[in-house]
Amino acid sequence: MADVHAEMVANVWKVTAAEGDQVNEGDTLVILESMKMEIPVLAEEPGTVAKLAVTEGQVVQEGDLIAVIE
């Protein structure tokens, strides 16, 4: 099981994965936007998205939980 956390303060621009989705290492889960730059948040290991903790338009802080992969 792997927790995926935000690395910086940013807006959740687009959610590209859903709970229950199968993902591979390197797949994009969420795209964050900060200072007009798009930052993809990638799966760090293969598995199933057990929890998606963000929604589009939400502001995340550094260290906030984005997703849980099992």
Automatic annotation (TrEMBL):
<dbReference type="InterPro" id="IPR050709">
    <property type="entry name" value="Biotin_Carboxyl_Carrier/Decarb"/>
</dbReference>
<protein>
    <submittedName>
        <fullName>Biotin/lipoyl-binding carrier protein</fullName>
    </submittedName>
</protein>
<feature type="domain" description="Lipoyl-binding">
    <location>
        <begin position="1"/>
        <end position="70"/>
    </location>
</feature>
<dbReference type="Pfam" id="PF00364">
    <property type="entry name" value="Biotin_lipoyl"/>
</dbReference>
<dbReference type="InterPro" id="IPR000089">
    <property type="entry name" value="Biotin_lipoyl"/>
</dbReference>
<dbReference type="InterPro" id="IPR011053">
    <property type="entry name" value="Single_hybrid_motif"/>
</dbReference>
<keyword id="KW-0092">Biotin</keyword>
